[in-house]
Amino acid sequence: MRCLKCGTVDDRVVDSRMSRDGSAIRRRRECLSCGERFTTYEILERRELFVVKRNRSRQRFDRAKLIESMNKAVEKRPISRAALDEAVEAIVSDLEALQEREISTERIGLEVMKRLQTLDPVAYVRFASVYRKFQDVGQFIDAVAFLERNSEPAPGHPELFSPAPGRGGATLSTPTG
User: Fold this and answer.
1) Alpha carbons 85 and 130: distance in angstroms, whole number
2) What residues does 58 pair with on adjacent strands?
3) Dihedral of the CA atoms 71, 74, 80, 84 (nearest 10)?
4) How far apart are the first and last CA of the chain?
5) Ramachandran class of 99: left when φ > 0, alpha when ψ lies in -120 to 50, beta otherwise
6) Going by C-beta distance under 8 Å and a sequence separation of 6 or more, which residues neighbour residue 112?
7) Contact at 8 Å (CB) between 52 and 23?
8) In angstroms, what CA-CA distances link 33 with 1, 7, 15, 36, 109?
9) What is the DSSP letter of 112?
């Protein structure tokens, strides 16, 4: 790194620390010529991703849109901001790991549903209803039944369906309190 005071490139690293979220490394450096100390940050350069929409148009991947759609799904649900940020980071990492520059909206939607399924069942159904364009109540019931078959109840959330008394079917369970 070039010293801001004298312009030489000879320095030594005095201290290195990872940032709070782990996305950067902070380094304190000391110029070997003039003794000036300065701070640099190293961040991982992410490869630019493009989204291929259903109409085959392409646009840059926008993390803010991903966060916005997930925020709508978890609105008024007991999901912490940290848990949501962690899910978004995991989705972005999974997409980058595909080693593809172009990712379909279908693939992104599947990744979001996978994360929401473990995060909150109601948020999962909300997102699925928009993503899959549910047209009737039966599609909601199918989504809930899928959750019942393929998920363990999230801590603090009651099961969505419970066996109906005296019948082989299921009824929507309601929290008691």
Assistant:
1) 21
2) 52
3) -50
4) 62
5) left
6) 66, 69, 70, 73, 91, 127, 131
7) no
8) 13, 9, 18, 8, 54
9) H
Tell me how long the chain is.
177
Residue type, 9: V
CB 131 within 8 A of CB 104: no
Q: Which residues of 99-117 are buried (b: 16+ CB within 10 A; e: fewer)?
A: eeeebeeebbbebbbebbb
Select from 114, 142, 70, 170 the least CA-distant residue to 159: 170
pLDDT (tens digit, 9 = 90+) per residue, 93-135? 889 888 889 999 999 998 998 999 889 888 888 888 887 777 7
* pTM exceeds 0.70 for this model: no
Quick one: which of 8, 88, 101 has its CA closest to 46? 101
Give the Cα separation of 54 and 31 in Å (integer).
53
